[in-house]
Amino acid sequence: MLGDRRAQITVSGNFQMFNTNTLQLASELEGRTLRVQVPDTVTTPKRRAADLEPRVDDDGQALERILVVALHDEILFTPDARVRSLYREAKAAGWREVHRAAIPVGGTVVVLRHR
């Protein structure tokens, strides 16, 4: 998905079957390293909006932004209780959906990219 580009990946909707640890392990098994962030979705809308803004690396270069959202009815890991709010706010802020996949226990994983 990313090729050789550096990216900031934000993952929300973490639960037992799908979480940042599983994504990082899969990446390591492929010989890659992910920059993964888990947002505090329980915070204020202003702070959630800050988690959706563009980022730069240490050299001042814009990082590609990818948001991975797991939408399901399973018990969420904290601080992820408002994943659906983050998802709605991302869509309103111009993030576009690039991939969607079913979760075997029910629900959907949605991958969005920043405009």
Offer a few descriptive terms.
single chain; 115 residues; D-Maltodextrin-Binding Protein, domain 2; six-stranded mixed beta sheet; 3 helices; 23% helix
Overview of this structure, please?
The protein is of the alpha/beta class and 115 residues long. Strands 1, 2, 3, 4, 5 and 6 form a 6-stranded mixed beta sheet that branches. The chain is globular, with a radius of gyration of 14 Å. It starts with 6 loop residues before the first strand and ends with a strand. The model has no long low-confidence stretch (mean pLDDT 87).
Layout of secondary structure:
Layout: E1 7-12, H1 20-29, E2 35-37, H2 45-51, E3 55-56, E4 62-71, H3 83-92, E5 96-102, E6 108-113
Parallel strand pairs: 1-2, 1-4
Antiparallel strand pairs: 3-4, 4-6, 5-6
Brief summary:
The chain has three helices and six strands; from the N terminus they run E-H-E-H-E-E-H-E-E. The protein has 115 residues and is α/β, with parallel strands linked by helices. Strands 1, 2, 3, 4, 5 and 6 form a six-stranded mixed β-sheet that branches.
Structural class: alpha/beta
Q: What's the multimeric state?
A: single chain
Order of helices and strands: EHEHEEHEE
Give the % helix. 10-25%
